[in-house]
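[Target chain]
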Amino acid sequence: MRNYPKRNYFKTFRPLSALLSFGRLAQGYVRSINRRVRLFLIVLSLFCITLLIALIVVLEIDLNPFSDQEYYQPWDSTYRDQLAVGDIVFRTAYGKESRFVQWISGGEFSHIALITATTPEIIVTHATTNDEEALPNQVLATPIEKFLSPTFAKTYLIARPEFLPDIDRLYFAEMVAARVGEPYILKGREEENLYCTTLLEIPLQQFAPHLATQLSWQVLSLPGVAGEYLFPDAFLSLPDMRPLLIDDQWIEDL
């Protein structure tokens, strides 16, 4: 019987064993790096969140200019006596909500209201979400000194709907004023709704149905906001909508 020399299989596989050991070390090193990267990303995320919260706190007035209702600079104009019941007030406020409305609509103004009284003070009626912290999401009657306060309003325009006779403008204003206290409902055209523009569009259907049909609605496809919606600038396109006052600049003599 032939005797074969014994082989040292350990020596044969020693390079492979060393390679496996090196692989395990490399894998451990990579895991260590990955843990450090993950830890760094977690710390960075926490820092960014903290910074964002701090910015929101510091910039609260810009994010919601109506958060402090006690302190504001009252609006005044040398032309206030020229304003009348039935005049329409367009406004763009400071804050993210106003910027969002401008962005999705492509318009200049983000809010609309109607002058419903001039004595003893000028009152505008409007459907809003956050103009009054104690009265959220409803139709409000607000003094124009507050509605157009430079503290809240970035720009504004007041126009007269001359397509309505004087008497109809009074009745139009009465219908709008009668809805004070009703809930704000932001829904598409095919659903029951009541927001700033439809507060005016609904009675307009009665007084000038041929013009109400000329209002240009916009189709939105955003999460939670899908369908046709009406934005303030649509009213400026109506015939015989006469601009009167833009940022305290009278357009022309009455």
The chain has two domains: 10-58, 80-250. The two ends are 129 Å apart (CA to CA).
